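User: Modeling request: complex.
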Amino acid sequence: MNINEIKGLIDQLSGKKIDMYRNDFLLTWEKSRAELDATFLVADILREMRNANVSPRLWHSGIAVSNFRDNSTRTRFSFASACDLLGLYVQDLDEGKSQIAHGETVRETATMISFLSEAIGIRDDMYLGEGDKYQREVAKSLDEGVATGVLPDRPTVVNLQSDIDHPTQSMADLLHLAHHFGGVDKLKGKKIAMTWAYSPSYGKPLSVPQGIIGLASRFGMNVTLAHPEGYGLIPEVVELSKKQARESGGSFSHVNSMDEAFKDADIVYPKSWAPFDVMQKRVPLLHSGDNAGLKALEQQCLANNAKFTDWECTEEKMKLTKSAGKDMPQALYMHCLPADITGVSCKAGEVADSVFDRYRDDTYREASYKPYIIAAMIFLGKRKNPAATLKALLERGMKREVL
Amino acid sequence: MNINEIKGLIDQLSGKKIDMYRNDFLLTWEKSRAELDATFLVADILREMRNANVSPRLWHSGIAVSNFRDNSTRTRFSFASACDLLGLYVQDLDEGKSQIAHGETVRETATMISFLSEAIGIRDDMYLGEGDKYQREVAKSLDEGVATGVLPDRPTVVNLQSDIDHPTQSMADLLHLAHHFGGVDKLKGKKIAMTWAYSPSYGKPLSVPQGIIGLASRFGMNVTLAHPEGYGLIPEVVELSKKQARESGGSFSHVNSMDEAFKDADIVYPKSWAPFDVMQKRVPLLHSGDNAGLKALEQQCLANNAKFTDWECTEEKMKLTKSAGKDMPQALYMHCLPADITGVSCKAGEVADSVFDRYRDDTYREASYKPYIIAAMIFLGKRKNPAATLKALLERGMKREVL
Amino acid sequence: MNINEIKGLIDQLSGKKIDMYRNDFLLTWEKSRAELDATFLVADILREMRNANVSPRLWHSGIAVSNFRDNSTRTRFSFASACDLLGLYVQDLDEGKSQIAHGETVRETATMISFLSEAIGIRDDMYLGEGDKYQREVAKSLDEGVATGVLPDRPTVVNLQSDIDHPTQSMADLLHLAHHFGGVDKLKGKKIAMTWAYSPSYGKPLSVPQGIIGLASRFGMNVTLAHPEGYGLIPEVVELSKKQARESGGSFSHVNSMDEAFKDADIVYPKSWAPFDVMQKRVPLLHSGDNAGLKALEQQCLANNAKFTDWECTEEKMKLTKSAGKDMPQALYMHCLPADITGVSCKAGEVADSVFDRYRDDTYREASYKPYIIAAMIFLGKRKNPAATLKALLERGMKREVL
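Assistant: Request completed. Predicted assembly structure:
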């Protein structure tokens, strides 16, 4: 894309009525449709600027805090890449190495790490009912810091996965779909099957499927959620998705059959997750460090899981789907990675080897949007007039690399 | 503050006779009064430059080494923020991940990490008699590296807390006082009560109270040190503080009553620390890994501690103090954080909940000076003519952020 | 060196026929002599640019990935310093903190960490037969990522130590020799003794001695490899070194006597390593986590080691050597550090205290080349016309630091 085409995208952004400055990005359903579209646009603009060797570096100094309360590879690198692209230095808040164990409150810690910080990314997805709460507590503390004049500016909080939503994943996924189908507007009427799949592991978070149904239902898509009985998501998120689907001119169906979900789907997203009620039982056990109880729950859950090994994305099931265009005879397969691939990473898993292999590059392309989505979220939280700033960056013309 | 006012501060700096270039910042009492004042000035200048969106970035590349031999949140972030503000990339010397365990000498390690380094921050406060010694060993190694031509430049060593002093804390604290009372010169005659307070924990370092009495006694303040019998600090530091208080036109009193210390105080700093002789006994036990011995010492110390639960900064005690101005009917409460707050972080602690809460924002403001104090220490160790460099940075006018 | 002299070095570089763009640096023997010389030249140019306060910063954003599968101090700092000098932010791929344990394939991980990455440094030296293999797997994955358009650019892979070679060490070592003796061409005819030495430890990798003989044999040097019987290196590397020595007009001899190796040597490199067959036996034990087996192997190896405590670089042995010029009556002593020094780091070790002490600064100088060698490897992997880029950097004249 040349500079004039990038300017075209910025002009589109100028037209959006958004209120994202000094706001955080925690749940996609707290954002208006214009705000979601603005995020996609800024992600595309930043990527195209980089590709055209124009540095989108906003800052010559500034800290971005990463707070991973659970392991991470891809999100860690996505966050670091996004922050570095904008000029921020990532300082990890490693709670093992910090004094937080000695009894610091969230409010105090949030303030102490933010004197020269511009963004805070938080992953906290282990405990149902807590990750989102923690992120809001951090955000509230930052508001207080700004109100009392202790903090010179308000760092933007970006949800890098909570118990409820995983917006950097779902937004990257949807941007991938938009590029695949030729635009966000082309998603209207497409059928997406967000379906549970078997995995030999246990306890995968609910935030990915919740994030997908909570976001896809905003774009007039026909969303089908499928899982075995007993594998429900947070009921409020399912209800919200239904409502959103209606309002956006799409539909929402909730079924207990993978075949039914795959039938005529344009997109399939087969992925394992733990049952909601198991996740609920897990929280007090994790808190009390009851390893025997956790072990027993795991055994029970794995035994139950084992009844559903046929929930696998096989070649047969893929034949039920529709063409996703672009020389693709069947649906577009999606996954947040890593996938449990039958015969590769486990004996029986979420997806057949041959299916995964055919879509491997698509899943990698899907992941490639995440750094730019994160950068866009930070950008929009930190700039009052993002289109004007992007134009200023283009005009500055600082090269990202000397060739 | 506008650019002209910042220039005014730089002009004040020009007038100071200082010898800080290629010197380290290990103990405040090794610095002249002019050097302390210069550090305050540079900290204020860097903060005001940042606030005016002028980047004080000195370097386009360069490593800052952080060497935390004890846990840290706020100092870690302060150091990272300071270094990033000046353009340095922080590389952690994590002795767990390094080969130091395999028998490297301090001299060798100090050289190996310094080929392209500009600053080294060290926290080593666990062992009485060792932290300061280690920092000097590193500094000496760097001198040798420069003398032999192995190192192209001398990285500045900044003490991020030793067994003796905690200058980034005490200097930030004093700068906070200077801003609170309207200038460094306004500190003369103010009474500061550095007093022990009860905590249910054990073994907190002596460097904070030592740092405070060793620094406050330089500014003509009336310093009162208070603690129960048996909770003395390093005797030499107390003696030095007495001498400094006399020389600066202030006073020093040493009492065994919190009430007496609080009486008519302008500033109170109630904080727990371990008795000096306990810290001495701890060293061989820590070295030999004698966990039973450590446990026994802890039990003995906690039992002794328990006699002094009334050493708490309560509303009643605060009533004994004077007004600290600025609509503050009582003294200014200070703490290096995190504080042990009664009923919040523990059953009985250093400070009453209501007192802490009233001064919460003040303690946060106090902490906010630390990144700038650290940046100033590095700056002054690395620039022969700091005022000229600061003027050059102002004239360059590189914006910290694109708005 | 002034700017014109630096231009002279760049002109020399222009004349080299090299094919390093989009290639990795894994083994020195995969590089042509012109490519080795180009690497030395770029390392010198980058160092001289820095010394002349011209920033060689190539990038205003970009990620460098460090993947240390074994502990490291000096290489970690060298890599960080090199990347920072070129403008890259180092993000550590800490496999303990990542989801790799959950079954990600190398291909997937390599892609996920590379969307905005320019360089990947890998240390993987624990398992004979695996480190180099792993690095090639990463490299191949990156090629696929570029071929499918998933990656916008090809990050350069730099071997930070494998089971076979340690090119950042050996190249830094040879650059040190070139500077010591007055040029790469002066190495012809010099005798270098790469000899085993006793150490009370066990299991040191073979990559350093292999790297040295595999590289020194390229420059017409007379290479002598010495070790007790049973302490052989990978046979293919020894054979290759013999062949290279012949082709470059040097010689290669393989002896079982330290004295013989030291006789008339210009350079001595006495260093402990584990016997090849022990390293081979170790791999299945490490893989199966057979600690008892490892312990038994260690005991056997240490018992065998103990027969060779006289393989120590003593004053007596040094007397057998030749003058290395520059007021040096005996050979130049080299070591990759840390050395096992008799009476200092152990009772009996690789080198006598007095010998090591005399050459201490030389070994530190030797180490100082590593950051620049790494930077040169990255630079040459990322720039099609490196001489033109270096000239552009000189002309840009961006100062590394504001004085």
